[in-house]
Design a protein that fits this description.
Order of helices and strands: HHHHHHHHHHHHHHHHHHHHHHHHHHH
Structural class: mainly alpha
Largest sheet: none
């Protein structure tokens, strides 16, 4: 087990994520660095050029290829914070105690913001590093103001390059995200549908939802069109998953049934149609070809509709009827997708509002404040990480000052960069940071020694390493650390300091900071194992709310809006993604065992089966139930909710007695009695049966785990 875990750690260290490569983002950063250096040359001041480059580098980490609105907001925030911290650091540099208090508070804030978003956490690290660097150089208030303005100029240069095409390509990132989403949907038509795996397209849907979040309140026709496309794509995703499973069921239960080939052809045509829609979104062409595939779908639909099912069993009649309904829904949704993709007017659009973003600012502020207060406790992983980071950075700042070297600030800065909220990230980043720093220092020193240090060469090397840092460095942190170290050596060389004077100080201080960060985590760990139960509980909470909204479609007076169902479905996907990430982090931790892996595998499979059942039920909703049937279904819904609630509370530490769990199998038997001889709504009963099985399995795993924990604690 130890050998396997060691291999996993080293594999993680040398992972190269090609999906993070972005040529245009890297090019913008390199251009901004080049412009900043040329301004310094033009002003005949390497110091000013260096400060502007620092502003560029701080802002470039907020640049990405996502929606322009998100990008602008994030980069503006980074630019303002950078300028403010440069000013505060500079004016406090003469007073060590004031500087220490400020850096401790900033470190705590940088660690605490992970309760909202990991991206904000990364911005906090950049802000903290900026403060550390500038607080190490004593200047007067007038100079501090000038430094902050030059840093703001550098950030502004990066922003101009990142947002220059916004007026001309306002929705290009959203179009790109939607195009990829529909291309990914097309690939679902080829998948083998396995109920113990995450429902296909979940990750792609989350990414697209995030990218379109920036235009959630955009009143322009294009903005509404893109949101509507996503909504219709979501409906198609549900249909593809359900129809694929029905095809497999027909083939399994009735080999040779001609409907299997018709459905297979239908899915093949749907695949081609979705690929054409993807092309329409990005190029606004091939609309007619998409409509031809729509006609092919209608032909396959007519074949199934005209088929004679009279000689089939009651079960097969029900399954074939469900397949026909799914095909009818998909034809209608495909038609809407083509028209929405082809037009830019408001006609035919269905607006999908984002309730959270639409709330007045005062309510959003209350929500933020409530989150801050709720996490201000030692029980919160975010609070513990913030406190650990603040203490460790403060100690590192003191150590850096005691070293009495010009570059002692690399100790607290390395601590800020390396120390993360989880074990895997801290040690992964720490090892790569130290190794990459040493390699980068040696590489840059050799280049500076061999090549003539004329302005042209310096500028060229700076641009090259800035490009490498933002391109390949995004795929592997070790390469990022090498590039950053090379940039530092070149920046120092610009000020006239010999590179050989830098390599020892920088290398020693970086290694010292990295060791301090990893040692701090070992002394005060936040093990993922202690958080995993709460992560699972949150996932079950979102499943409960999402299921309630879906079930409400067939219960009188309990239906919720499409927008609300979309929001709850999105929450459940995000919670499931958080659980998967937490599980992966935990399996890299010391102390994880084969029993842990078995438990997590069982939870994952059962949870995914429940998610599949919810997808299928929603795709076939609403069900026409009379008042008596509604009362039986309402009892089943209540028992499902009660089971999920009890499991969630038990995972959070509450002692839930066994007799408080409802007998789901009895509830399902009562529900199935409604099926009758005609076998109506077969999919509904099959999926509620799957839901019953998955929750009973989930309950068994959770209760067994809790009992094992109690025995180990004695």
């Amino acid at each position: 087990m130890a050998v396997a875990k060691s291999r996993s750690l080293w594999a993680n260290l040398f992972t190269f994520d090609r999906s993070r490569l972005d040529l245009w983002v890297a090019s913008r950063s390199a251009m901004a660095v080049g412009i900043a250096l040329m301004i310094g040359v033009w002003l005949n001041s390497s110091t000013i050029g260096l400060i502007i480059v620092m502003g560029v580098l701080n802002a470039c980490f907020s640049d990405n290829s996502d929606a322009y609105a998100f990008r602008a907001k994030r980069m503006t925030r980074a630019a303002v914070i950078t300028a403010l911290l440069v000013f505060l650091a500079s004016i406090s540099s003469a007073n060590f105690y004031l500087s220490l208090v400020l850096i401790t508070l900033i470190a705590f804030a940088a660690g605490y913001v992970i309760i909202f978003d990991t991206v904000l956490g990364e911005l906090g690290v950049v802000a903290m590093s900026t403060f550390v660097v500038f607080s190490a150089h004593k200047v007067d208030p007038a100079q501090a103001l000038h430094l902050s303005l030059f840093a703001l100029l550098g950030a502004g240069i990066q922003m101009v390059l990142a947002l220059a095409l916004w007026p001309l390509r306002r929705y290009r990132p959203e179009r790109r995200a939607l195009s990829k989403f529909f291309m990914d949907l097309s690939s679902l038509c080829d998948l083998q549908f396995k109920p113990d795996e995450i429902p296909g397209g979940s990750a792609q849907s989350i990414d697209t939802q995030i990218n379109l979040g920036a235009i959630s309140q955009d009143v322009r026709p294009e903005g509404r069109r893109y949101r509507s496309l996503l909504t219709q794509g979501e409906r198609l995703r549900l249909g593809i998953l359900s129809l694929g499973r029905l095809k497999n069921r027909i083939d399994r239960e009735n080999k040779g049934n001609p409907s299997v080939d018709i459905i297979a052809d239908f899915l093949a045509m749907e695949k081609m149609l979705l690929q054409k829609v993807s092309y329409i979104i990005t190029h606004e062409q091939k609309v007619q070809e998409a409509r031809e595939y729509l006609k092919a779908l209608e032909v396959d639909l007519a074949k199934v509709r005209d088929s004679d099912f009279s000689n089939q069993s009651v079960f097969m009649k029900v399954v074939l009827s469900d397949a026909l309904r799914q095909m009818e829904n998909m034809v209608g949704q495909s038609r809407a997708v083509i028209e929405l993709a082809a037009r830019t007017t408001e006609a035919g659009m269905v607006e999908s509002e984002r309730n959270e973003n639409a709330r007045p600012w005062r309510f959003r502020f209350r929500g933020i404040w409530a989150t801050i207060r709720a996490n201000f406790t030692f029980h919160s992983p975010g609070f513990r990480h913030a406190l650990r980071l603040a203490i460790c950075v403060a100690v590192a700042e003191i150590v850096g000052r005691l070293l009495a070297t010009e570059r002692g600030y690399w100790v607290p800065m390395t601590v800020a960069i390396v120390l993360k909220s989880d074990y895997s990230s801290t040690f992964h980043r720490g090892l790569l940071r130290m190794g990459g720093t040493i390699v980068g220092l040696l590489l840059a020193t050799v280049l500076v020694t061999v090549l003539p240090m004329e302005p042209v060469w310096t500028l060229g090397l700076m641009v090259f390493f800035a490009f490498l840092m933002r391109w390949v460095g995004r795929a592997n942190y070790g390469i990022f650390a090498i590039s950053v170290s090379a940039v530092v050596v070149l920046l120092v060389a610009m000020t006239g300091v010999p590179p050989k004077n830098v390599i020892w100080d920088r290398g020693f201080n970086t290694v010292l900071g990295g060791v301090m960060a990893m040692l701090a985590y070992l002394l005060w760990p936040t093990w993922e194992k202690t958080q995993l139960s709460d992560v699972v509980a949150r996932m079950l909470d979102t499943y409960r709310k999402s299921f309630r909204a879906t079930a409400g479609l067939s219960l009188s007076g309990q239906a919720v809006s499409i927008a609300e169902r979309d929001r709850l479905r999105q929450q459940s996907r995000v919670a499931r993604a958080e659980y998967m990430a937490s599980m992966d982090r935990y399996l890299y931790e010391r102390g994880s065992t084969d029993k842990d892996r078995e438990f997590l595998a069982g939870i994952t499979a059962a949870g995914n089966r429940f998610a599949h059942a919810m997808v299928a039920i929603e795709s076939a909703s609403p069900f026409a139930l009379d008042s008596h049937q509604q009362s039986i279904f309402a009892k089943f819904v209540q028992d499902i909710e009660s089971t999920l609630q009890n499991l969630s509370e038990a995972l959070r530490g509450k002692d839930v007695a066994n007799n408080e769990y409802p007998d789901l199998r009895i509830s399902f038997v009562e529900l199935e009695k409604m099926r009758g001889e005609e076998g109506r709504h077969g999919l509904f009963y099959d999926e509620t049966d799957r839901m019953t099985n998955s929750l009973n399995t989930l309950r068994e795993f959770v209760l067994q785990r809790l009992q094992q924990n109690r025995l180990e604690s004695k």
